[in-house]
Structures are given as C-alpha cells and as structure tokens.
Design a protein that fits this description.
Layout (H helix, E strand, L loop, with lengths): L1 H25 L6 H14 L1 H4 L9 H13 L3 H17 L3 H13 L6 H10 L7 H16 L13 H13 L3
Length: 177
C-alpha cells in the first residue's frame, strides 16, 4: 500500500526530527523548554509569509523567497539552520504544523534540501497546509533527487531502501514520481 508507506515514512521522519530537536533543546544552556517553545513560536510567526507560499509556488521559488527573508534578518545561515532544526522538533513534538512547516522550509532554504520531503508529506496529507498533490510530488522529487545525487539523507540515513521506497510510493500515489 503506497499511501501507507508514505505515511509510515512521514512518521519515521517526524520521530527523527523530534529526537534531534530534543537533543538540541537539551543542549541549550539557561533556557527552559517553555522559553525555547516561545522562541520557536516567534520564529514560526516570522517565517509565516514564506510558509504560506508552500502550496502555491514551486520548490524552487519558495526557498528563494525564504532565502531572501533570511538575508534580511542578519542571522548567519548556520545559526538560522540550527534554530530551524530545534524548532522543527519542537513543532512536531507540540503538533504545531505551522512551526514544523516553517522550520522545514528554512532548512531547505539553508541548502538542506532533503528536508523538502517533509513539505511533500504535509502537502500530500493536508497537514498544516491545503492538500496539493501536484506540489507534494514536486517537493518529493526535489528532496529525493538531492539525496540520490549524493546530498545528505537526514531521515534514517543508513536505510538504503528508504529513498527508493518513497520514490516508488510517490509514483504510485501521485503520478510519475
């Protein structure tokens, strides 16, 4: 069942993001989880205009808009990516899809294209964004192609069968993936 396979892979990716987020959150000195959550809520609000573009623009256009936003903040790209990684985990742990979507998008904008898989999952299921199978397929294709071309696999990187499984499931459920 291709749809089930994609849902299962989303659960795997989400759990991985929460685990990484927990580890990063635990390593932040002098801030409580509530304070970090508040900062992540502010982060989600700050990137909401870019997040709103996910369903209407291409996987090339949306990260460009997010990169433009990031440049205006004056925050160095590695710091922005670190914040996004923390907030991705916090967002998923708290079922805050706006926070998770914005964080995944900012990671893609920072050059970590594999995180686009999450945007594909959200668009396929309509989690935190209107369901849009065409855009979902485009995000899956961009993120999977990045990993297939040698980019870092951020979810279950040692599972060599994961990317081909997602590729096949996308083709079966959404069309020519």
């Amino acid at each position: 069942n291709a749809s089930f396979a994609l849902s299962e892979q989303f659960c795997t990716a989400r759990a991985g993001a929460v685990s990484v987020g927990d580890d990063l959150t635990d390593a932040i000195p002098n801030l409580t989880l509530a304070q970090i959550s508040d900062q992540c809520q502010s982060f989600a609000g700050a990137v909401s205009a870019q997040t709103a573009l996910i369903g209407s623009l291409t996987p090339t256009q949306v990260p460009q808009a997010a990169q433009g936003f990031a440049a205006t903040t004056g925050i160095p790209q590695p710091e922005m990516a670190a914040t996004a990684r923390v907030c991705l985990g916090v967002g998923y742990a708290n079922d805050n899809m706006e926070m998770a979507l914005g964080s995944a998008l900012m990671l893609v904008a920072a050059g970590e294209t594999a995180y686009g898989e999450l945007l594909g999952h959200h668009l396929r299921e309509g989690f935190g964004v209107s369901e849009n199978t065409n855009r979902a397929q485009a995000w899956y294709n961009v993120s999977l192609a990045s990993v297939e071309a040698g980019g870092p696999a951020v979810f279950s990187p040692t599972d060599a069968g994961r990317i081909p499984l997602i590729r096949q499931a996308v083709a079966m459920t959404l069309g020519n993936g």
